[in-house]
Structure formats: C-alpha cells, structure tokens
Amino acid sequence: MRRRWTVLAPVAALAALGSTWASAQTRPEDTEVHAPVPVIVTPGEASGAPPSDAVVLFDGAGLDEWVSVRDQGPAGWAIVDGALEVRLSAGNIETRRRFGSYQLHIEWRVPEGVTGRGQLRGNSGLFLASTGPGDAGYELQILDPFENPTYVNGQAASVYKQAPPLVNAGRPPGRWQVYDVVWTAPRFAADGRLEAPARVTAFHNGVLVQNNTELKGPTRFIGAPQYTPHGRSPIKLQAHAGGGPVSFRNIWVRPLD
Fold first, then answer.
1. Model confidence over 90-131: pLDDT tens digits?
2. Residue 130: is it exposed, middle or buried by C-beta count within 10 angstroms (0-12/13-18/19+)?
3. CATH number for position 62
4. Into how many domains does the chain fold?
5. Is 179 helix (H, G, I), strand (E, B) or coil?
6. Measured between alpha carbons, how far is residue 111 from residues 55, 131, 226 in Å?
7. Residue 3 in 3-state DSSP?
8. pTM > 0.70
9. Most buried of the four, 92, 117, 132, 191, by CB within 10 Å?
10. How far apart are CA 156 and CA 141, in angstroms?
11. Cα(198)–Cα(193) distance, integer angstroms
12. Which residues contact 148 (CB under 8 A, 6 or more apart)?
C-alpha cells in the first residue's frame, strides 16, 4: 500500500507563529511612538518666506553672507531694487558658511530684454556645493527656459551635463522663477572612498524637475564627472556672460545635518 505524505506540521507551525505575533499586538498603543518629539518649526507667513529655522542668505538688504570666489573678499555684485544682480567683472560669489545636506529656496529672474540664444541667453548657475575656484562644484543650471532650445542636459533646471529636468516648468523672461531644492551631500570614507553619492530633488516654480537624482560627481564642462573627496562646502552663484544679467532674491537655506 503506497502512503501519501502531507506537509501539515510546518504550515500549522507558521500559522501558530502568526497568531502569536498578532495576539501580542492587540492594542493601538503597541505601534505608537512617542519620542523623540519633532522640533517645532514655524513656517513663513507667505509662500516662499523663510521658516523659523532657516539661515537667510539674501533678503535684499546686504551681502554679508557672501564673498568673492576669486579672493574671498567682499562679493562684488550689485543690489538693484532689492534684488541681487550679477556683475560679470566681479566673478562668481559663494556663501561664507559651509553646508552639508540642506533645503534651499532661491528665486531668480532673466531680464525681460534678454538677447542671444541657447547657452548665451540668461545664463547663470546655482552650485549646490562649491568645491573649489571658478566653476568647480555641482551645478543646477540657471538659463532662460522659455522658447530657448539647447541641449537638454544644459537647459534650465538640469543638473548641468548630467541630468535633464523631468519637464520644462519655466516662465518667460522678466518674471521671477523659483527653485526649491533638497541637496543630499556625498559621503566619503576616511580613506577618500565614496560611501554615498550626492543626490538632488528640485522643484521649478512648484513643479518637480529632479526626483532624487543621483549625481556621478561634480560638474565638468568637458568629460565625464568623477568624485574627489571633500567636506562641507559653500553654495555658489555663477557670473556667466550669457545675454544679460540674471537677478536673485529671497535666498534661504535650512541645514539638514
């Protein structure tokens, strides 16, 4: 007589374990967490206004938070009607403070009478981490986005030469544009090895344009990017000969580490 074997014991044992786990969590309180209590942050009264824990980098009143990249002296850009305006002769500027990961809000405008086309039409750059002189660092492109064809990994809201924006959410010249950025700085081991790459999430005028984009290294105009170890870094704004001076206002940052 042939016997038939059934595997009932393991199934029964698993069912019993599941029943035990479920019976051990029979109250809502069993899955409630009460500490640590999140810190209270008061949001700005108006849309885009800095929250209570923000570092205000520019509010129209002065350039105390900025220095020249060239010599670390005073930033040589102009304040015109409460807006910070690029001065090409002064070169790039960067923050006095250094940051790791952060949330950033910045508003920028290409002049209404902008001339040129492509990369020579309202060009500047937001370097999320300045890693050296000149244009060294990780650049989120600033450029006239309105009816201005160019290479897609160089248009407005691209991670320059690395990642095109998901969409073009730009406004016409003469109108203020808004970037809201979450920057996750790269992490390096003590021996210089890359432990975690940089990542960026960005909104352009409230529209998602970079979704946790992983960077391959700092921006390079020619050639492939690659990482070099660095620590906390300034935020940099670019002076670029690009068809009319770009202006900035309402710049603030919330350090996340």
1. 999 999 999 999 999 999 999 998 989 999 999 999 999 999
2. buried
3. 2.60.120.560
4. 1
5. strand
6. 27, 29, 34
7. coil
8. yes
9. 92
10. 5
11. 13
12. 117, 118, 121, 155
